[in-house]
Design brief:
Elements lengths: L5 E6 L5 H18 L2 E4 L16 H16 L10 H24 L4 E3 L5 E2 L6 H6 L4 E5 L3 E2 L1 H6 L1 H7 L4 H15 L4 E7 L11 H8 L13 H14 L7 E7 L12 E5 L3 H9 L3 E4 L3 H10 L3 E3 L6 H4 L17
Parallel strand pairs: 1-2, 1-5, 3-5, 4-6, 7-8, 7-10, 8-9, 10-11
Helix pairs in contact: 2-3, 7-10, 10-11
C-alpha cells in the first residue's frame, strides 16, 4: 500500500446515515483500487455505531469522543427524541464547521468538491487523481462522490471495513432469524416518511405533487393505502403465498398495527443502522426512492423494487441480487 497518499472526507455534504455511507463506501473503494489510506473526519455523529475512527487525535477527541460518551449514557439510540443529543450535535457541528473553514483556507489546492454534481471515481482522470498526482493528501467535500464499479468489486472488503459494532449486529440478526423459523419468504418494506426538516410543504401541497412523482420519495399516513396495495400487487406478481410470507416494515416514523390488512407484517423500530441491517437480511426489499432502501439492497446483495404509481414489473422480474435502478433518483449512482 502507498502509505503516503491519503483521502480525507472533510465534509459529508449533509444527509443522514445512508447518504453519508454511499459517499464513504465509494471513496473507500477508490482507495482500495489505488492502495491509498482513507479517513473520514466528518463521520462523528454515527461513529459510535461503527469501528471506523480517524487517526487524527484532535479530530477524535473534539468530534468523535463526545458522541461515544453520549452513547454510554443511553441518549444515542433515541437520536430523534433526545434533547441532549440534539444540543450536542448542534454545538459540535458549529465547532466542526469552523474547523473545516480553517482546513479549507490552508489547503485550497488539495480540495475537491462535488457541490456542482456527481464525481465518478471509477472514471479515468477524475479530480482526485489530478490532486494526488502532485500531493500526498486530498480533502473531499460533498456527498456526491460515486464509484459504481468499485462498490461492487470491493463489496466484501467494504463490508468488513464498515462492519457495525457487535452490539448493533445482534438485534437485527435475532429479529430476522425468528421470522425465518415462521415464514418461507421475508420481504423488507422501507417507508420514508416526511420529516419536519425536509423541503417545507403543507400536507395539501405534498399530496397534490405526490401523484405526479414517478417514484415516491416521501409518504404521509394518507399514503398507506397506496403502500398496502403495492405490497399486495408485489406478492401477486412475484407469486408469494401471503400465508407463508411476512413483510418487515422499517420507517423513520412509527407504523401502527391495523395499517395494513390481510398480510403478515412486523414493524421494526430500531436505529438507522439496525433498520439497514434488518432490511439487508430480508430476501428482497420494497422501498421508497431513498438512499437507505438502495444501500440496504447493496448491503445484503438482494433485489429491490421501489414503490411507483405504474411499475414496470418486467424490469424487476428475475432479479436475484442488488442492481442499479433507473427508477431510483435519490441515489445518484
Amino acid at each position: 500500500m502507498n502509505q503516503q497518499k491519503r483521502v480525507i472526507i472533510l465534509e459529508h455534504g449533509g444527509g443522514e446515515l445512508s447518504n453519508q455511507l454511499w459517499n464513504f463506501i465509494s471513496l473507500y473503494a477508490y482507495c482500495c483500487e489505488r492502495g491509498y489510506k482513507l479517513e473520514n473526519y466528518s463521520f462523528f455523529e454515527y461513529a459510535p455505531w461503527f469501528r471506523v475512527v480517524p487517526k487524527n487525535l484532535m479530530v477524535r477527541l473534539l468530534f468523535f469522543l463526545p458522541f461515544g460518551l453520549l452513547k454510554l449514557f443511553g441518549g444515542y439510540q433515541t437520536m430523534a427524541a433526545s434533547l441532549p443529543f440534539r444540543l450536542l450535535k448542534k454545538i459540535i457541528r458549529f465547532v466542526y464547521q469552523n474547523y473545516v473553514r480553517v482546513v479549507k483556507a490552508r489547503n485550497q489546492d488539495l480540495l475537491v468538491s462535488s457541490a456542482n454534481g456527481v464525481i465518478r471515481l471509477d472514471d479515468a482522470g477524475n479530480p482526485l487523481d489530478a490532486v494526488l498526482a502532485g500531493h500526498d493528501t486530498v480533502y473531499c467535500s460533498g456527498w456526491l462522490f460515486r464509484n459504481s464499479g468499485g462498490i461492487q468489486k470491493y463489496r466484501e472488503k467494504i463490508l468488513d471495513y464498515i462492519r457495525p459494532r457487535e452490539s448493533h449486529l445482534e438485534k437485527p440478526s435475532v429479529f430476522i432469524n425468528k421470522l425465518r423459523r415462521q415464514y418461507n419468504h421475508i420481504i423488507g418494506v422501507h417507508i420514508r416518511q416526511r420529516n419536519s426538516w425536509d423541503t417545507p410543504l403543507s400536507q395539501g401541497e405534498d399530496l397534490a405533487l405526490w401523484g405526479s412523482y414517478k417514484a415516491k420519495p416521501f409518504f404521509y399516513r394518507s399514503h398507506l393505502q397506496f403502500i398496502d396495495n403495492f405490497i399486495k400487487e408485489y406478492a401477486r406478481v412475484f407469486d408469494k403465498d401471503l400465508s407463508r410470507t411476512c413483510f418487515v416494515v422499517c420507517s423513520n416514523k412509527r407504523i401502527v398495527s391495523g395499517d395494513f390488512k390481510g398480510i403478515n407484517w412486523f414493524f421494526h423500530g430500531g436505529s438507522l443502522i439496525e433498520d439497514i441491517l434488518v432490511l439487508s437480511g430480508c430476501d428482497a426489499i420494497i422501498g421508497s426512492d431513498s438512499t437507505l432502501s438502495a444501500l440496504a439492497s447493496w448491503w445484503g446483495n438482494i433485489p429491490m423494487v421501489p414503490m411507483q404509481e405504474k411499475p414496470d414489473w418486467q424490469y424487476y422480474l428475475g432479479r436475484t441480487a442488488y442492481a442499479e435502478d433507473k427508477n431510483l433518483t435519490a441515489v445518484h449512482y
